[in-house]
Amino acid sequence: MHNRGMGKYDVIVIGAGAAGLMCAGTAAQCGKSVLLLDHAEKVGKKILISGGGRSNFTNRFTTAANYLSQNPHFCKSALSRFSAADFITMVEEAGIAYHERNHGQLFCDDSAKQIVELLMQPCREFGVKIQLNTIISNIQKNEIFELQTNRGVFQADALVVATGGLSIPKMGATPFGLKLAEQFGLKIVPPVAGLAPFTFTGKEKEELQELAGISLGVSVRCRGKVFREAMLFTHRGLSGPAILQISSYWKPGDELEIDLLPDQEITSLLKLKRLSRPLAQLSTVLAELLPKRLVQLLASGHINDDRMQQLSDKQIEHLAYQLHHWRLKPNGTEGYRTAEVTVGGVDTNELSSKTMECRKIPGLYFIGEVMDVTGHLGGFNFQWAWSSGYTAGLAV
Ligand code: FDA
């Protein structure tokens, strides 16, 4: 029973981000008294900056294959209980105008603020108590959970941890949820930065800097995963959607294999050019297929810039291989400073996929990015926040 005087609630949710707001609103609609705590000064900060201020709030083609986790099946139950279609229905019923970009990514036409408002509406209507600027100093579980904070002591039968990942500490990301999991003896899959640009050192760094600003469609391969999207050369190394996607799979020491001309059968094309334009330089022909500065870099040491007629079949085949299999070895990623997500987190083996509740600690739940479920780029991380938040909201 709920007794506000003593700061006692049915449910306390820690973290008023995407998953926490979804969970608090859902639990309150089910009749629970809910306290939502956050150390930040406002709710949903990452939602507000997401998608360049328009929030890529879900992806029409969401499936379990869009998530990394040590248990790739874990996310299936929550994703089917509350699917992308369910969130789209919420967005449509609220009259929020949206549009679709590449690969099923959905964005607000106007502002990400509308998504925060959409989540806040049931919280307001069903009486979720939201307490911001709250620093939690201690959590204990006896019969019930007891939280000590700078705003007093709060108690609840159920505690939901929705404190997110470690990316962008400047915006308030903390390892709070992981530390709490450790306190309760739960296993953690070691966290690393995901959806992050790559950095390079030495000669590779110098060469890539020359190309800063160039963007081209490539396919990037690492650890058996392939992404066919745009790649961007930056002053620090490589970025762009293809690179961010593969970075979640990359491990230190791995090479990237980049196909610079993924849709072209370059061997026969160059053989035809050898017949039709025998006197042209190879670099002139390549500059019709690839950005000029990139061709200049290749011609400055990576390939022999002969006339087309001088190229043997073998040389053409070797060149085609190089263009389809450009190998680069990053020295790291830019890390949590710019990463969009955290790969790893609370081990899903500790949790029920039907409720997000800990098997060992009844009443303790983890949802959203704090757990070891990480989406690809394209709206999948918010969808996981909605699906896991809703699932736990029904269960608490
Ligand atoms: P989220 O980070 O949303 O919320 C965690 C909350 O916990 C925060 O309010 C925080 O203040 C609070 N908290 C943390 N530590 C605490 C503590 N010690 N005490 C109290 N409160 C604490 N995804 C996507 O699908 N589409 C997109 O367009 C984008 N865009 C995007 C842009 C940028 C720049 C970033 C960094 C990330 C994205 N993402 C994204 C990823 C997405 O933002 C992320 O996966 C979800 O917000 C995760 O939801 P959670 O609720 O788990 O954490």
From TrEMBL:
Please indicate if the UniProt record lists Flavoprotein as a keyword. Answer: yes
Query: Domain RsdA/BaiN/AoA(So)-like insert: where?
Result: 193-341
Q: Note whether Signal occurs among the keywords.
A: no
All residue ranges annotated as the RsdA/BaiN/AoA(So)-like Rossmann fold-like domain in the record: 10-393
- UniProt keywords, alphabetically: FAD, Flavoprotein
Reported cofactor(s): FAD
For this entry, the protein name equals Flavoprotein, HI0933 family
> What species is this protein from?
Mariprofundus aestuarium
